[in-house]
C-alpha cells in the first residue's frame, strides 16, 4: 500500500510547480479539484463559480473520485485534500455539505494520509490567472483557514518555506522518501 501525503497551502504558494517537478521525477500525483471545477464552470459561462451554492460539493465529489484511483508507486502526493475543501467552505462562509463532513470522517478513520501535511508557505506575491483571482492579503487570510483546519483534525504541518523551487522539491523528496515500490 502506498504512503499518501497531502501537499497544500494557500493559492499562489507555488504548489503546482512543486508537484510538476515531483511528477517529472516519477512521483504519483493526485490533482487538486477546485481549479478544475472553477475552469469548467467558467467555460459554462459562470464567471464566479465560488459564489454558487453547489461549489463546495462539486469540489468534494471530484476530490473523492480522484483520490479513489489506485496509487502507482510506493508514494503518492495529493494536491490538497478534503480538509482544504472544508477550509475553503469556511473561508467563503459557505455551508459545509454533509458529503464533505462524512467524507472527512471516513478519510480520517481510514488513515489514508500520513499525519504530516506538507504545507507550502506563500512566496510573498501572487500571480493571478483566469482561475486564481485572489489578492496576496486574501491568500494570507486563506492560509490561516488552512492551518486551523488541519490542526483541528490533528495533522502536523511540515512547513515548506519560500525557497527556490529546486530546494522546495528536494525538501519534499526528503520528507516523502523513495517513490518506487521495491521489486
Automatic annotation (TrEMBL):
Stored InterPro entries: NadR/Ttd14_AAA_dom, P-loop_NTPase
Top-rank taxon: Bacteria
Domain NadR/Ttd14 AAA: 5-168
One protein family per Pfam: AAA_28
Gene3D superfamilies cross-referenced by the UniProt entry: P-loop containing nucleotide triphosphate hydrolases
Protein name: NadR/Ttd14 AAA domain-containing protein
